[in-house]
């Protein structure tokens, strides 16, 4: 296919917002950096590496974003052909950034997770499809470290941590999507302790490529003796080319791609239908040599994948917003509202129009709020990185791990849903241009849509949040941790009289959230459990709104303080912009909490319709 | 380009809902049908023609929907190549449906507008891109009838009314999008009374094709002596091949396509950049031989185009919903929530899951509500079709014209915005499958996105609603007409005790709308006019919600009555489904009105940010 697009970078990053979060909104980040683990990493190093990341995103990743969407991936004679820029881009990426989080390096210290995610926001925002190929390298190295046998670690960990090989996660099967308990792939144990695998996997992202010499598949399957359901699942390590115990690379291991799915977006990411052991033996190592604990082991990967989903969403949505902002400041159209009837009034850039400002402020506040949410989660992850070896810090670890666990489904589901909305606004801001490919924004919308589905649909996230994290009520330990955080921010806010209206609205909405969770607890007591899944999506969105409101208020306090200082890091306009984000979101979006509470509280019984009624409807339409 | 898609019809229509609206929810439709104008059109004829329309949509339009998206349009040596199915499809369409609304036919009476729009919903939902080519035939025939000279009517009206030629609307220029006052195309008057046109038009839908022997462009431009601004605009009639006064077709008239824009969707609709008179003389007739009244003349076309936009949105969104419904009733995944922990519980189709039901009910209620809205508008249009020649019916005409005028921007903007949301839910309902092309839903989302932009952005619609239709307050004549309608429904509803909770919520939300409009009136009095555009999008959405709530309640009353009758047209399940739609929407969506009112009423000043702040932000990002 001929390429009609010029190679232009559409991606825009907001480095100042990163700096603001690291050094001003979350000053505790300095505590982390002071720890010996990060002794080789100064403030200046971090600024430099973020700058370098931006340059890489603008110069290398961004320019092939649109071209890879045009080319897509093709299956030719069983081999998957990626967009033509990928091999060279991979070489460069692997060389410049491949071992960034490899803890074994001698020359440099690892980066705190908070900084890592900021880099990833730029990379994933600049070229999301490309980033899927290496996306599981680090999480799977962590998985091996946690659960792999000594041999497995020795064979695979370093290769993955340095991106010499890539990793691929293979859970879904045609009959087993959201319901992984239906997985049928089987492994039969051989005398040498390895397994022979038989099965197929479906909708596997970045499931086949030749970017690296080998790919290591982490496959969810069952041992021969294992039962049905989730408790019979195991995690198999399946290299595309077998790896002998001495590390030498052996024969092709019969992992094959039989089809690619054509989809709305993310077209540079091959969506593969894979077979294991269909045309010859497919050997596997059993993770940690333990059967039936696969789902637990996969959780490590899944949690990281859920956070990454939020980061993908944020990276793209932020760039969509910044592109729309740029367009609106250069497009001359219409007069100021107050001068509508003045024939001699000048045309103004559309950024002057009230409705464009409404859209820009909604985008700005949500992008910044979502970025603060990921920063807050990765601040806790950063604490864990320095505390987890320290027996004195058990309580802190419990706190930070708890907050991470609680926020993970919110990051995944709330940010991916908001990102779609942000793209809608970014397109609308640009009018007809927003709908055209050459503006670059419509692709973000198409790419983002999968994020509410993959790595567990957003409803599954809401179930995880309400059932597993909030204990179906407002009494869970994790919710206490969350409350401590929000309460502390609200308490500090009393020192900022100018923020009083925001504090009042946040306090109110935070109460609404609590009342919704109380209602959930009531349903448990009154055995109306079926109400919970009816409202869990709405409650997750409410929790997302309150969390964003909390963190934007927190940012507004930091910005207020910065404005009083003589020696400011950034311009006054920047800090006033942070105040604006908090004010817009809290006064224009957060009041939605009363609506959610009203709907959750009412005794309406119209939430489900009987199967027969739906069937009648379907029959009426098809007939 | 090779076609990888099978030719499958994805489109699904809901004929029962049409029948319900025509014969049960709006029994006054019978009054219209009893008028001599429709003497040749019986109830049975209408059912037959709707059935025939569905068959045509399923068998001819639907099957090339996806293929036309894959092929798109190409500009080859100045000629626009459409998807290969179009010429044959056009022949068939023109033959079967081309003169449906041609009043001059002898053999059959015209169809009432209410029925016409139902047919168009199916055609536009089944293949929106294709339908753009003939979309302006009837409205421009009406335009000629209203404003054209005798000669112009004679030359063009019949050809357009019978779809022998097509019509194309050309307003936008690169520098004049939402702001048509910036249009630069110029016509200079010749001695023979025709004009020579010079100019270019941009983002013109279906702007060039060879489906018909000729295309008539209705071009917004200026006479040589005309001033700047909107009052200097004229409407030029520009045939692609000149048409002599005796009706013979003359030479090529130098309307040329210089570029096609590549876009997110609607790919079978050529998005053209046209030049007029660039490489040779381009002659034009001046509409009605009157300069400087072009914008007024175009309003006829624009109003029809705005209603059509709502119909496109409804047709596609309805099919997206019905496809998702069908999928959810066949996809086995997961157990019932109450049996989550029962290892022997059966898997159920996902339609049994509460969150899927939430999405289906949101889609169902919105689709049915939007369809009722278009039906209500076209009921008034149908009244006008029988009353407008009747001097005794002046008052009725004022009433119906007023309601149409008021509802038109709501139909355009509210339905197009809701349609995007419905597609989001339809994709989500189908999970990973929803993101794949072979499921057919993602294309609806991509196609629908333009509808919030074209024919006046949705913000422009909200300005029209609040400024021109509602008179910036709650005192306008059109609003009185609207209130009469809603009040009458609420009064009748007191006979239906089972609907009491719905009546209460609708009454409350209707008050909220009124309070928002009062607030708008207050801003006018206190000279805070700039607040109006800040909130007009939100107020339009609120008015849409209330209107949908009103019409769904109205439908619920009709369904309740039907259920008590021995001789029902449809199944009990169908009528109970109508009740469910009303209940779900009114109790789960309509309470949002309190949120809108709260935001409109608060005295927050964060709605705009100063230009310097935005500029600082842009500089910070690009730097």
UniProtKB/TrEMBL annotation, chains A, B:
SUPFAM superfamilies: Acyl-CoA dehydrogenase C-terminal domain-like, Acyl-CoA dehydrogenase NM domain-like. Residues 168-276 form the Acyl-CoA oxidase/dehydrogenase middle domain. It holds the Pfam family Acyl-CoA_dh_1. Its cofactor is FAD. Keywords: FAD, Flavoprotein, Oxidoreductase. Residues 294-466 form the Acyl-CoA dehydrogenase/oxidase C-terminal domain. This is Acyl-CoA dehydrogenase. It comes from Bacterioplanes sanyensis.
